[in-house]
Amino acid sequence: MATKIRRLTLATGWLLVTFVAGLPVFGVVLGLWLSPPISWEQVSVFFTYNGLLSSVLSSLLLSLLAPIIALYVAFTVYSQYRFNPRWQALEQRLAPLLSLPHLAVALGIVYLFSSGGMVWSVLWELFGSTPPEWFGLGRKSLLSMLIAISIKEVPFFLFIFSALGRQLAIKDWLLQGRALGYSESASWWLLVFPTVLKQSRLALLAAMAFTLSVLDISLLIGPNIPELYAVVLYNWQTGFTADEQAMAFLGNLLLLTMLGVLVAAIYTHEWFAIKRIRTLAVMANPLKITRLARIFTAWLGLFSLLTLAILLTFLLWSLGWNTQSPFSAASWSTTLWQDEWFFMQTPLLNSLNIAFFSSVLGVAITLIALELQRQSKRYLPDYVWLLAILLPQLSMVYGWQIAHTDMSASYSTAWIVLSHLPFTFAYSYLVLRGPFQSLDRHYELVAASFGYSYWQRWWQVRFMLLRPALLSALAIAFSVSVAQYIPTLMLGAGRVSTITTEAVAIASGNEQSITAVYMLVQAALPFIAFFIASVLAQRLRGSFDAAHQ
Amino acid sequence: MLRINNCQINTVSGQISLPDITLEQGELLVLTGPSGMGKSTFLHWVLGDEIEHASISGDIILNEKPLNDLNVEQRGIGLLMQDVHLFPHLNVLDNICFALPALSKNQQGKKQNKQQRRETATNMLEKIELGYVAGHFANQLSGGERSRVGLVRALANQPQALLMDEPFAALDPNTSAKVSQWAFEQLQQQGVPSIMVSHDIDNIPAHAQHIDLGAYFHSTSSASHAKRN
After folding, report:
1. Digit-coded pLDDT (tens) for A101-136
2. Fewest CB within 10 A of the end CB: N or C in chain B?
């Protein structure tokens, strides 16, 4: 009987984790499977769609360049921080920096550095003049997108390198390099980079897939003519006519093809980069240029400053400051906050509600997935669990939307929670996998020798030691859910509004001050989550202490 | 009394047929031998842990009870390793409380409450003059303190036998000598039969039994070589 119950529990567990981890594939397949009747004429209309080629090329270029720039910057930063006392400060601030929503960073950069942005206005005001209109970043341009995404993805890659670094004998490799007469910075590039690059394929793909199908940032700061491909596709996907549905289907196919191109680009870039490094190594090139990497020691300070500047800009705008008014505290008022508070309550409560449930469920299901693999003594490859961040969101959510409509399902928060779940699950898995797998099994063995049963050990030792990592995972999952735009919009059909959907709707207009209010709230939610998590984590001792006894 | 009969260890490199082992209350057996011969693997087998890279057969009998079919948690055997693995989320006192049997009784014969369990643990620490570390966490202890707390914790569980895997190897020679002498006295006083794996052949206590695994080792390659000849 006990064996039957155990088997049933295991089967239910596997079913649950397969369902959540498999939802992205389900969405993509469904989107391709349920093809509307398509005529050759429609195919021809699709390929001759005005500006399609430019949209596709712009999106491909952006999706390729932004993550690769971020990867190189992140590696340089990592090489400057890893073996010095600043590393701990960076590791501690990494998760909150990572959690800052992309949208807030992107709009913040525009608010700060666009023509008439805060930085230029303040600088010019010092000389009693106003900046010329041509000066600064375009409010909607490919360059603004490229800069925003490149900056925002750096903490993500640092997070990945931090996990990778624990598995590689980097210190020994650097020592070998230095013993052979190379500088430390040259050794990083000649000896460490090739391995790190190979092991960062999934991270690169995740960043590229995100950039390829990101909608909110593309809508707000992406170029207008032609629009980025994600915006074009979204417009087809939300169309009602048979022609638009045909375009949506073909567009989805094209999006997946573009992802394929990016996968090929990852391998091609890797091949070229490693070949080049091998040549440099064979020629015993001292790579003196890598000494310039020292300037990247300022990264943490600069990124923290940028974050503060972004938040401050939103705050000032929300208090009534604008580029036309003089920079004086006398004209500040909280009227906007008081006015907006009435409208903000429902989206705020929805955001909190959805983020709470989807993060708790995401973390819980991650624990189940890890425990099931531990019991079966076989860990499945990471990509199986991370499909939600490796596939383009527009493709998977399109399939979910079809299923949702076919089921005549309601537009309730429960469906939105379910649509956020694959993402909170994937990020929780990314955070928890390392601590869970590397937890020294001897702690549980010692507990077993004291007579504790399997589940007593699991709860009193494993779970307790994982508490700090679980808090981090919860905070990250919470932030991921708060920032979700496409699933909330497409499954909620505008009837379930969150801070993010409202922020994008308002930012699409010209109300910069009201946008700032919503941006500030959107950015504040993850910060609050991380603040609570870090206060709680400081009171707990866990796997980090276990590894540093 | 701990008995291990007909024990045979098979590894990739060879085979060891151990002589039958009998340990009365408070007796100590020291196992020595070259690295990779299976000393630690043998301890983990006795403990009931899963064994990798070797297969071990034999009968383990503790106080006339056969143990082979029991899980680690059912065997009543304690374990002390070089890294004593004090739980980092619990302080020293709570580490010892964690090890105290769940059904520990107070003087009135009733199950101890939380306060009483903590008092019991404090008494154990004070007996060995370590009361001052009660509120410390593992990373706040010196190597010697950690080893002694590890042993107190292992004994707090009232094991019917104790396995020690080079428990004092990480200590400096002076501390190692002091702590090991103290540990052997504790084990003798409490009448716990123990098996210790050690590399230190020169410091085997006079009262201990000793088995050198190397003396019972038959290399697989030499066996097959002999067959071919």
Report:
1. 888 999 999 888 887 788 888 787 777 777 777 777
2. C
Contacts of B174 (CB under 8 A, 6+ apart): none
- The minimal CB distance from B73 to the residues A442, A443, A448 is found for A448
Chain A residues touching B71 at Cβ < 8 A: 448
The amino acid at A480:
V
| Token reading at A38 | 């398509």
DSSP H or E segment with residue B55: strand B54-62
Asked if the Cβ–Cβ distance from A451 to B101 is below 8 Å, we say yes
Three-state SS at B79: strand
Positive or negative: CA dihedral B33, B38, B42, B47: positive
Is residue A475 within 8 A of residue A530, CB to CB? The reply is yes
pLDDT in tens, A71-93: 999 999 999 988 888 888 888 77
Provide the residue type at A163 as one letter: A
Structural domains of chain B, ranges and CATH numbers in brackets: 2-219 (3.40.50.300)
The answer to whether domain A1-30+345-543 has CATH 1.10.3720.10 is: yes
Give the 3-state secondary structure of residue A170: helix
The H helix count followed by the E strand count for chain A is: 27, 0
Cross-chain CB nearest to B73 (options A443, A452, A545)? A452
CB atoms closer than 10 angstroms to residue A364: 15
**DSSP letters along A179-195, please?**
HTT--HHHHIIIIIHHH
Q: Which two tokens stand for residue B143?
A: 């190597």
- SS3 of residue B10 by DSSP: strand
Q: List C-alpha distances in Å: B43 to A118, A205, B22, B117.
A: 69, 46, 15, 30
* Neighbouring-strand partners of residue B105: B111
Q: What part of B 67-106 touches A (C-beta under 8 Å)?
A: 71-79, 81, 83, 85-89, 98-99, 101-102
CB A485 within 8 A of CB A502: no
Separation between Cα atoms, residue A372 and residue A359, nearest integer Å: 20
DSSP string, A468-531: HHHHHHHHHHHHHHHH--HHHHHHHTTSS--HHHHHHHHHHTT-HHHHHHHHHHHHHHHHHHHH
Q: Report d(CA A494, CA A488) in Å as an integer.
A: 8
Residue B41 has pLDDT above 70, yes or no: yes
Cβ proximity of A427 and A55 under 8 Å: no
Selecting from A442, A447, A540 the residue whose C-beta is nearest the C-beta of B89 gives: A540
* Per-chain mean pLDDT for chain B: 87
Please, are residues A500 and A103 in contact by the beta-carbon 8 Å criterion?
yes
In the chain, the amino acid numbered A381 is: P
- What is the ipTM for the molecules in this complex? 0.83
The A residues from 389 to 448 touching B (CB cutoff 8 Å) are 440, 442-443, 445-448
pTM, entire model: 0.85
β strands within A294-346, DSSP E: none
User: Which of the residues in chain A have pLDDT under 50?
Assistant: 548
